[in-house]
Design goal:
By secondary structure, this protein is mostly helical. It has 5 helices and no strands. The protein is flat.
């Protein structure tokens, strides 16, 4: 005879299927036991490998980095123009940050991108790359805000 799972049952039609009598578990979430003498994979082993790789990468980054990222050497640099531009261009923009209107977000971020670009022009050499990165990021935010404002309601401009 056969049961609903397609396996043979006892001759009287009752009892466990033949597959279960042989020690196999049909429908179980547990995999069958490996044959004696074989090794099971150990998930903690791969976790340990990943942890060791991360520790090695962080250690190597500290060993081969010449200067800490928070220290900038500005000795011998004239900061007069930089400070004046920051005071006149960037600081007033930061003072008025209460809320960003969605309709005016493009202009909001474009104004900051322009201010950071003017600041990058007078920045000391160690700061130029970072200030240019700020200007580029503000420009990308302005472009994204303009795309969102121009999209009809319900459309996703990122999908285009």
């Amino acid at each position: 005879m056969a049961d609903a799972e397609g396996g043979a049952t006892r001759a009287n039609g009752k009892g466990a299927p033949a597959a279960r009598r042989r020690g196999e578990r049909s429908g179980s979430a547990r995999p069958p036991r490996p044959a004696p003498g074989t090794r099971r994979p150990r998930p903690w082993l791969w976790t340990g490998v990943v942890v060791v790789c991360v520790v090695a990468a962080v250690t190597a980054s500290f060993l081969f980095d010449d200067a800490p990222p928070t220290e900038v050497d500005l000795s011998g640099v004239d900061l007069t123009a930089f400070c004046a531009t920051y005071r006149d261009e960037v600081a007033p923009l930061a003072a008025g940050d209460a809320e960003i209107d969605v309709a005016g977000a493009g202009a909001f971020f474009r104004q900051r991108a322009d201010a950071y670009a003017r600041l990058a022009a007078v920045s000391p050499e160690p700061l130029v790359e970072d200030v240019e990165t700020l200007a580029a990021a503000a420009g990308r935010l302005a472009d994204a805000a303009d795309a969102l404002a121009a999209a009809p309601a319900g459309d996703d401009p990122a999908a285009a």
